[in-house]
Amino acid sequence: MPSGQYKLEAANKAEDEIMSIQAPKGCRDIFAEEAKAVRYLEEQFSQLAEVYGFKEIRLPTFEHTELFLRGVGEQTDIVSKEMYSFTDKGGRSITLRPEGTAGVVRAYLEHGLAAEPSPLKLYYMINAFRYERPQKGRYREFQQFGMELFGSENPAAEADILSFLDSYFKRLGLKDCELVLNSIGCAECRPAFHAELQSYLRKEKDRLCPDCAERMERNPLRCLDCKLDSCQSVLADAPVPVDKLCPSCAEHYAEVKELLNALKIPYREDPKLVRGLDYYTRTVFEFHADGIGAQSAICGGGRYDSLVSSLGGPETPAVGFAFGVERLRMELEAKGIELPELLKPRLQIISFPETRAESLALAKELRAAGIYLECDLMGRSFKAQMKQANRLAAEYILIYGESELGANELKLRRMSDGEELLVARAALKDFLSQ
Ligand code: HAM
Whose CA is nearest to atom 30 of ligand 1? Predict the structure, then answer.
């Protein structure tokens, strides 16, 4: 629609209707303090990721819907209930990414990265979209930071990314996130296990919740982590995958645990942990936090040795994780862990109509040297500008009056004690950079 026409229609709407426009349900605006905290989390994440030899990948926000159908799995809640899908003007079915792994695998295949030396290690910081019932810690648009490691079937791959997560959480000051671990087997041992679990569940069908009664036939594994007490009591004696692993899965799992012990990374085994995405094989894990209520899973991941080949690539073992940035922030807040504060301005320049141009030129010069300062853009009175300086808690103020025009020395007032300091104009940059 041409913008003129849009404006006309908007103008014709009742004023209160226009005023009531709100962000879509489950979406959030992120303001200064939180944006700064997220930026800090990003910096720490990317710095440590690079130290671990991971390279960044930036992905499209949307992909062909088919990627998620085949990648995440048609039977999963994410695909069957939670995707933001639409048909674009070219008639293609497009989906806003509900997670990052499928997109990374698509890029891995599209760009022939399988030909690169193994392991190939990628990290990403994305927003993701899921049509879920919003609640504390659960949004329809949220942020994930994640890593994917391709080409190693060795348990050292799991150890490497869990070592990264342990270090990252500790670097932020989080000491008590609990790592929960399980193995769900591979294409070899899973069919027999599925059949055994299914026959157990069929006998108990009447006592299962409607979701589990349905899942039981197409994806029985998912019944194991149903959150309802009624289902959990039915499942108390259900077979669990970790007891039915084939010898090579059992050996793999034992080695993962040995490596975690060697790295002194504590974990709790939960034989019913199965995760909500279909691509996992062998190791699965989550990190849980106790400070953020019901949505306690901060991070989830695991091994997915069949995903690359199921999307048309060569057999390629892989392992990865993603954590929710909002949940991580909530946990940091709940634990009283303070992230670096917003910068306070070093200087506030108080100006007058006749000195405005020169004070703006000085501000430009100091800002080019990286000095954070504020100056008046409102044509405020002297009194109002002083009030503003107090509100912003600027460290120094510089009253730029007529006598400062072209002066070689400028008088700064230190706001903490009112002391006045004469600083040569030429030395101002160095003085404020200290
Ligand atoms: P996921 O468990 O679906 O795994 O999501 C990972 C994390 O994203 C969760 O632990 C949670 O912190 C956060 N999260 C998920 N949904 C929401 C939501 N609606 N609102 C806020 N935060 C949310 C994956 O996405 C896999 N791709 C992880 C992975 C990577 N596995 C292997 N590689």
Answer: 321
Give buried/exposed letters for 394-412 (b at 16+ CB in 10 A, else e). bbbbbbbbeebeeeeebbb
Q: In terms of Cα–Cα distance, which of 368, 174, 162 is closest to 283?
A: 162
Backbone Cα Rg of the chain: 28
Spatial contact of 282 and 253, defined as CB atoms under 8 Å apart: yes
Round to whole Å and give the CA distance between 58 and 91: 26
What pTM, to 2 d.p., does this model score? Answer: 0.89
The string of pLDDT tens digits covering residues 117-151 is 999 999 999 999 999 999 999 999 999 999 999 99
**C-alpha neighbours within 13 Å on the C-beta side of residue 185:** 19
Which residue type occupies 77?
D
Q: Is 142 in the pocket of ligand 1 (CB under 6 A)?
A: yes
Which residue has the CA at smallest separation from atom 14 of ligand 1?
324
d(CA 239, CA 197): 6
Q: HSE on the CB side for 328, CA within 13 Å?
A: 29
Q: Judging by DSSP bridges, how do beta strands 283-288 and 297-303 pair with one another? A: antiparallel
User: Which token pair is 323?
Assistant: 């954590």
